[in-house]
Amino acid sequence: MTAAGGQGPDVRALAGLRVLVLGAGVSGPGAVRILHALGAEPILADSRPEAIARLRDGLPHGVGCEGIDLERAAALLGRTGARGGVDLVVTSPGWRPDSPLLVAAATAGVAVWGDVELAWRADAAELFGPRRTWLAVTGTNGKTTTTSMLEAMCLEAGMAARACGNIGLPITDVLLAEPRVDVLAAELSSFQLHWAPSCRPDVGVVLNVAEDHLDWHGSMEAYAAAKAQVLTGRVAVAGAEDRIAARLLAAAPAATRIGVRLGAPRAGEYGVIDGVLAARIGDGEGDDDEVALLPAADVRPPGPAGILDALSAAAVAMSVGARPEHVAAALRGFTVAAHRAELVDTVDGVRFVDDSKATNPHAARTSLLAGGRMVWIAGGLLKGADVGPLVAEVAGVLRGVVLIGRDRGRIAEALARHAPTVRVVELASGDDDGAAGPDEPQQTMDRAVAEAARMATGGDTVLLAPAAASMDMFTDYGHRGRSFVLAVGRVAGR
């Protein structure tokens, strides 16, 4: 795959340069605004004229950009170095490195930055005031919950902090925000990190690393390497009980390395002692102080994943000055975001749980093993992940399975191998061939929940934990979760 970046122009000398911004989605507006503030000439490229129009209409007064289609963007890259070419490409993080336009940029010798790389360089050069403190959170699962907890802890400690990146505002917007934000609690995906090769956060955490986005990165090694970038600053934090995350931590160049575990913490780690979240802080020579944070029972979301997220956020926050009382207060007041193992309703003794955010097998595992018999609603886009190990591990808790989405056949094959006695229902939809109407996703989800309800008996859980991405049928995981909630309401007779 095409490598990210290249050095490119000096960010302090972008004035007058033509910069091609690829993608009018979430990161596009912030990239256009910050480029305009730096005096560059942004040119926005997208295949959707309506998205370009919507972005341009939403820009502040006096901020403008030319909007072009992808064919014209390719022509501009072909003229690089000649009159009318471009000097830099700023890409939306979702664009794969082997996309034709990015390959063309590499061939033409034009540097490609993501919006995080642009923001990092501008902040490091202090173009928008003194450099901020960057706290980066990544991992296959738990990023949003950990980042939200981290923001709450920093705010409790009196810091001017803001959750940003893959949650809340793009980092480019935060640099321009008023009042000023001094501490960035940045959720960073592997895509964003791939396109931000210069980024060296002050403190970074890798929560866990499991198979995901392999279709994008090309290999597990490349995916893990992208995650490891957040461990290159002053302090590196990682899940000590996650095999790959622990390996990345051991190899990290950070001066301070902190492990996080569910068991009792070792020297310099965070963990759980007699049911209480705690840290062992000291010089590692036998006189480490045990610092209690709060009872594990007070953490929301409950369970191992929530506790690890809380410990990880605490390790990052306390590395930049938060105290135990700030951590405890923030966690006691923390509210879990929607679609994360959320109890929707109980009907005739059957619990209906929405874990639509479980967009890969590693994430689905936690909910499937939460206790009791499960009727599992799964399927979507597996993104190159192998679902076989998950199915083998959870086969014993499955009452039945309802499969939806484009890659449902691969999950069905794994179930036939590892859980041959479990009843499986596959539901086709028009999304399989791209011919779905606007009501098709909801109709499919209604059928899935109805089938699952018929399989379940009192005391069971009907669990939406798709282990796959949603974009084959739904706008995003939130749309999928809301569809599940509507379907549950119909089963309940509402």
Class per helix and strand makeup: alpha/beta
Spatial gap, N to C terminus:
50 Å
Estimate the global geometry from the Cα principal axes: globular
Work out the helicity level: 25-40%
Strand order of the largest sheet: 7-8-6-9-10-11
Number of beta-strand segments: 20
Output mean pLDDT.
92
Question: How is the topology of this model organized?
Answer:
Elements: E1 18-22, H1 28-37, E2 41-45, H2 49-58, E3 66-68, H3 70-78, E4 88-91, H4 100-108, E5 112-114, H5 115-124, E6 133-138, H6 143-156, E7 161-165, H7 171-176, E8 183-187, H8 190-194, E9 203-206, H9 214-217, H10 220-228, E10 235-239, H11 243-251, E11 256-260, E12 270-273, E13 276-281, E14 289-295, H12 304-319, H13 324-332, E15 342-347, E16 350-354, H14 361-368, E17 374-378, H15 388-394, E18 398-403, H16 408-418, E19 423-426, H17 440-455, E20 461-464, H18 477-491
Parallel strand pairs: 1-2, 1-4, 2-3, 4-5, 6-8, 6-9, 7-8, 9-10, 10-11, 16-20, 17-18, 17-20, 18-19
Antiparallel strand pairs: 12-13, 13-14, 15-16
Helix pairs in contact: 3-4, 6-12, 6-13, 17-18
